[in-house]
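Form 7-S
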Amino acid sequence: MINRFDIAHFLRYGYIYDKTLGGQARTQLPKTGDMSKQIGEKPLYLADEIKQLLIQTVSSSLDNQHSPALFLSGGIDSPLIAAVAQSLSSKPLKAFTFSTQDEPTDEACQASRYADEIGLEHHIVTSDPNDLPEIILELMPHCDEPPGFYSIIPTYLVCKQAKNHADVILTGDGADELFWGYASRMSRVIRLAPLFRLPKWQRKIRWWLLRRPFEWNARYFDTVGEWYRSGHEHNYESWLKEIFPTIPSIVEELRHYEYAGTDQDETAYWTRWNEFYGHMQASLTKTRMASAGAGISVEAPFLDQRMIEFASGLDWHTCLDIESEIGKKPLRELLGKYVAIPSEGKLGFNVPMGSWLRGPLRGMFEETVLNRDALMGLEINRGMMRKHFDDHLSSRLDRSWGLWIFLSLAIWEDVHKGSLNET
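Output:
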């Protein structure tokens, strides 16, 4: 059952708040690292260790499922899984990429280059944007919670195509969380964590005196945890209070971002812990629901217990360069053994949700969201909801993340009526 606190958390961050978040896992990822194991080791050596672990995990998938399908993005993680899997197979494996047919978000070209170099049988999945409302309605009954990540759409479409060829598909999930892959938001808070030894008013004065562009965010927040939380925000609290006058506060109960450290090393391990027990859980939920809807099983080799235990002992410096904001250094090194030029960007089944909401999903949003007086028991100020949507339509602001959350929750409520616990 979903209560109002869960809904408040979903509206703000994009996924349901699990009250066991950060609790026991089969392999516990520490908030601080045991650096004695890996300090001084070069990424190249770590790449060799990671390769052996992936071979062990992926080979068991090949043994159990003769020819699993493969997710293939234009990034680092799924191409690395694909490369290792293909090196263990005597015939070309089938890899699947979603093409948005939109240049800024389309990774099909990079994925095709990977497929050629690795020797994969590449399948590019496309969809007519006009079919999006039907696809979402087809998917939503398979979602046991509202899907906060709109990448569930390409994930579902790829899984549907892969199901025609295999019963299992391998994914690169977990690599970003284990090897400091969210390099931009991680690097900034790690780099500036020592500044939080100063009270906020002193950081504000420092900003006005020095005017360093990369420090501008650090003057707004009381703690590093509060700042890091803002990096996951999809709807700011002030927006939600305008749209939902009765929305409950979540500050008192949300503990996942309670962190006031100022040491760079400690902060580096905390960011990984936070991503592993927070963001990754939402990502895995998205993949689980999409694959269940398509009727195919998903395996994540990076989340094998042996890999988690290995990663838990890594020195963060071997994975993340906070000056260049490049993460997953040993994974990039390893992928470079299979392909000529690994991607430098952060990719992974992105879609042009901003333009979709202005185009093929506009009617669905207006009918499903703008015509209702309440959402999961929360009263809607329809005028403010309309204003936020109009701001997006005019391109004054890109509110695609937040608007998708409203749309997702409204459709999910309509499909799963009665699942809200009115407490």
